[in-house]
Amino acid sequence: MTTNSTADLLQVLNEHGEVVRPDLLPDASTLTMLYRAMRRIRHFDERAVVLHRQGRMGVFPPYGGMEASQAGTALALTPEDWLLPTYRDTGAALAYGLPVSTTVAYWRTSPHGWAMPEHLKVLPFYIPIATQYPHAVGCAVAEARQGTQNVAMAYIGDGGSSEGQFHEALNFAGALNAPCVFILQNNGWAISVPTRTQTRATNLSKRADGYGIPGVRVDGNDIIAVYHAASEAVARARRSEGPTLIETVTYRVKPHTVSDDPSRYRTEDLTREWEAKDPVVRLAAYLRAQKLWDDAHEDALQSEIVEEFEAAVREADTYPEPSPTEILDHVFAEPTPQLRAQGEELRREVNA
Amino acid sequence: MTAAPPTKPATRTMTMVAAINDALAIALERDPAVHVFGEDVGVMGGVFRATDGLQARFGAQRVFDTPLAEAGIVGMGVGMGLAGLRPVAEIQFAGFLYPALDQVLSHVGRYRHRTRGRYHVPMVVRAPYGGGVHTPEQHADSPEAILAHVPGVKVVIPSTPTDAKGLLLAAIEDPDPVFFFEAIKLYRSTKEEVPEGHYTIPLGKARVVTEGDDVTVITYGGMVDVSRKAADAARAHGIGVEVIDLRTITPLDTETVLASVRKTGRAVVVTEAPRTGGYHSEIAAVIAEEAIDALLAPVVRVTGFDAPYPPFTSIEDTYRPNPARVARAIKQVMAY
């Protein structure tokens, strides 16, 4: 099965906690930065599920187990770059800088979560599969045409790479030398369909070959390798050397969404196998072994994260529910006569 | 935002395709954010030469050929628009737009809404449409109703060179996505004096082509000429026909339509799209909702048929409404 294959897989820190590529090991402050980011987004993932159970969050797609894949890629960007996340990539958006309160609001279906902050170039979580890949090419082409060095990073899953627009976008990006970084998170499943049913291919990074662009296959549970590959790809794009496809080989240990029951389609054996490769635990063990981390650091970080999250939820709690007439807002810059008439109809309806 | 043509404008005789080319050149000249792209638009100047000479004049960064993939073209345009450019994409034929409908339905019309105004897509997608010139299979479709049904997009369909230029400049300057359908039949069949330089014609304002008191014919694009011919024939029989060219179907100028129908009491709607669920049905519904008291006869639709557009030259004109069919519909509503 694809996700078990380690051929051509870039690793720096393997699942046994051994450094296999010492030449790619970053400095201590980068290592702790990566760890903090993973711990922070894991907390969000765990709490989001709890909030859902309490009726304080809408349907949420968890990303637990994929923290390295998400944080390791998004941390390679600056706020001048574009981030185009799917619904699975809340962790990437948080690592990129999306405020926790905005993120909570989004998954509560509040309009406050739809208005992404002015200082970031993050687009709302994409629900349709692969449709944002051509957008990333367009963002990247526009940046290049306007003479910036900004890049666009877009996410997709192994299932999404079956969509036609994934292939169109890779081809466009190569043909137009677009400064794009395509992240293909191979997390083993598209809801209930395993990768082996999606495709006969066993190394999805090789899809890049068909478009004349570099493809890199990374251990998606090794944030050091992921961050290295993403940073290299971003640097290439900034140097006008074009797009890169990065396949992060990981696993969705959590269900598709909080409403999904994965026991219908998979056994827990494989999930347990992947839990043993947990990206957060792996880096923590290494940092502790290197005396770069200890219980005091962990406790301090935990308090910081909890405080940030609770404050954000309190803030999101203050966001008012939208008024019914907001349905018709922001369709066009100026409402058409038809929308104006429908607005009056709606106001009469609401007041009736 | 709209500047009327100067009172004594310098003009030049142009076909519609020349007027479109002129509008694109003016837009590229005026605004460095405007970028024109699609299949064959660069070196070749487009299959109908609408972009002829633009790459030579504005360079391959501003006017460029893309890979052959319609969803990619429209989807890339979305990203370009989000990131601050004014993309003007060309799809070679409206019947080739279908692979891009995922982008249209999923994103093009939704961006302003799904970001609560933070981002918008000021994109124009140009596509030739319609029959009457004996094209191969799937080149003559009129899919405007599909687009008009998508919230957040505007649909413009000019019928004269002067309108094509002014409406296209307005579409490019519009902050929202606009689909701009150009009747293939009209590209080179009509010529007129077109004002030189920059001017715009506002989206959402219909044009009264001919005035009359007995019947209103509501139409757009390639059917305006057909309807005008039918109106001329009816006038010879003493029937006053008011032909309204909608110019844009979303937004729809209901005011002009309803004022005319209230005056005449009879309405015929003419398009070359298939009958069921077409935009003509929307117009008929608006008239029924707003002006039924004024009607002296049921609204009649003159359209194509609920069948794929036939690529058979000898019978193509049977599918596409002609002046005789429109004239029969006018007689029908007069005789009711």
Ends apart, CA distance between termini of chain A: 60 Å
Order of helices and strands of chain A: HHEHHEHEHEEEHEHEHHHH
* Percent of residues in beta strands of chain A: 5-15%
- Number of DSSP strand runs of chain A: 8
Strand content of chain B: 15-25%
Helix content of chain A: 40-55%
Give the name of the CATH architecture of the largest domain in chain B. 3-Layer(aba) Sandwich
Low-pLDDT segments, ≥5 res of chain B: none
DSSP helical segment count of chain A:
12
Order of helices and strands of chain B: EHEHEHEHHEHEHEEEEHEEHEHEHH
> How many DSSP E strands of chain B?
14
What gross morphology of chain A would you assign?
Answer: globular
Tell me what you see in this structure:
- The complex is a heterodimer of chains A (352) and B (336).
- Chain A has 352 residues and is of the alpha/beta class.
- Chain A folds into 2 domains: 22-321, Thiamin diphosphate (ThDP)-binding fold, Pyr/PP domains (Rossmann fold, 3-Layer(aba) Sandwich); 323-352, no CATH class.
- Helix content of chain A is 43%, strand content 9%.
- Chain A contains 12 helices and 8 strands.
- In chain A, strands 2-1-3-4-8-7 form a 6-stranded parallel β-sheet, with helices on both faces. A two-stranded antiparallel sheet of chain A has the order 5-6.
- In chain A, helix 8 links the parallel strand 7 (215-219) and strand 8.
- The longest helix of chain A is centred in the first third of the chain and has 26 residues, at 28-53.
- The radius of gyration of chain A is 21 Å and the shape is globular.
- Chain A starts with 27 loop residues before the first helix and ends with a helix.
- Mean pLDDT of chain A is 95; it is low at 1-5.
- Chain B is an alpha/beta fold and 336 residues long.
- Chain B folds into 2 domains: 11-195, Thiamin diphosphate (ThDP)-binding fold, Pyr/PP domains (Rossmann fold, 3-Layer(aba) Sandwich); 207-335, Rossmann fold, CATH 3.40.50.920.
- Chain B has 12 helices and 14 strands.
- In chain B, the strands form 3 sheets. Chain B has a 7-stranded mixed β-sheet with strand order 3-2-4-5-7-6-12, sandwiched between helices. A 5-stranded mixed β-sheet of chain B has the order 9-11-10-13-14, sandwiched between helices. In chain B, strands 1-8 form a two-stranded antiparallel ribbon.
- In chain B, helix 8 (223-236) links the parallel strand 10 and strand 11.
- Chain B starts with 10 loop residues before the first strand and ends with a helix.
- At the A-B interface, helix 5 and helix 6 of A face helix 3, helix 4 and helix 5 of B.
